[in-house]
Write a structure and sequence with these properties.
alpha/beta, Rossmann fold, 14 strands, 2 domains, elongated, six-stranded parallel sheet
Length: about 325
């Protein structure tokens, strides 16, 4: 497979780290430059003449659409794929009108960036299924779409902020929440929730909010570093039913913020992490639940097995990096 030279343009470093991990899944992909604003992107594109540019829209100094227009003049052979959190049809149309060959919604990047790149290299257009008119919407009174989201986090503060938002939203809507977090994070999570006007003690007492320790949970579910899937399914089911019965909403959902899979991944127990992700998808077939799974990541993190990384991403409905 021929080599492809890629310029990566995004003002969030951790997002660029995640994209580099995804690009490792394509043999021959080479990131030859990274920039964080639109003007830098124009200058770098003119200098390097990359084969492909992955371009955000909300950039400092010069937005991605204006940057793309200039790049098309200075490096006309460079193919452009927009990768953005903006899924407005007006923005998508304006972006593609620059001559870009692709538009990938960031939440779908893990599954859709590889085929978008393949399409662009063939000279074909690719538009993410996460774009506004293709997104699944819930019918009134209908069953909410499955949410099993993957969060790559760069530090504990970002992890706790994400968990706090998800749990606070659930509890304020009279739903329930379960936090499977490492013991050192439990007090910090309590404090953040109280700062969001959540009566944590009352929610725990009523059973709508359940704290579970990661280490203690995994100790009961692993056998020779592999998951006891039956025990895991039964254990999670009991927790979900307990929380759901305590919730006051008419059709209660349970939000589960989980560090267990990320802890397994960090320890090199990737097979067990995949098993647990698959178990969670099985749980979603019989319970009204939303999962947010947190995996630690750093600039130095490398993908040792691209197949395992791809499987982990594919088990989720969306992938985020903070």
């Amino acid at each position: 497979m021929s080599s492809i030279r890629i310029l990566l343009v995004d003002d969030h470093e951790q997002w660029r780290n995640l994209v580099r991990l995804l690009l490792q899944l394509r043999p021959g992909s080479q990131v030859i430059g990274e920039v964080s604003d639109g003007l830098e992107a124009v200058h770098m594109a003119e200098e390097l003449k990359p084969d492909l540019i992955l371009l955000d829209i909300g950039l400092p100094r010069l937005n991605g659409i204006e940057a793309a227009k200039r790049i098309r003049q200075l490096s006309p052979d460079s193919k452009i794929i927009f990768v953005s959190m903006d899924n407005s049809l007006d923005i998508v149309e304006a972006a593609l009108a620059t001559g870009a060959l692709g538009y990938v919604y960031k939440s779908d990047a893990a599954s859709e960036l590889p085929p978008a790149i393949q399409a662009a290299l063939r000279g074909e257009r690719f538009v993410s299924s996460g774009i506004e008119d293709n997104k699944l919407t819930d019918a009134p009174g209908g069953k909410a779409a499955r949410r099993h989201e993957l969060l790559f986090f760069s530090d504990d503060a970002l992890l706790l902020d994400s968990f706090t938002r998800s749990i606070a939203t659930a509890l304020k809507a009279d739903n329930a929440a379960i936090a499977l977090v490492a013991k050192p994070h439990q007090q910090s999570l309590r404090e953040r929730l109280k700062a969001e006007s959540v009566d944590v003690d009352s929610a725990i007492q009523q059973g709508t909010f359940i704290f579970v320790d990661v280490a203690e949970t995994l100790a009961t579910l692993l056998v020779d570093d592999l998951l006891d899937s039956v025990r895991a399914f039964e254990s999670f089911s009991r927790l979900i039913l307990t929380a759901s019965r305590a919730a006051k909403a008419e059709h209660p959902r349970v939000v589960i913020c989980c560090q267990c899979k990320g802890a397994l991944w960090a320890e090199g127990k990737t097979d067990a992490a995949i098993q647990l992700e698959q178990c969670c998808n099985d749980l979603a077939k019989s319970h009204e639940i939303d999962f947010l799974c947190a995996y630690p990541i750093s600039a130095s993190h490398d993908v040792e097995d691209e197949g395992e990384f791809r499987i982990i991403c594919s088990e989720h409905s969306a992938v985020h990096s903070r």
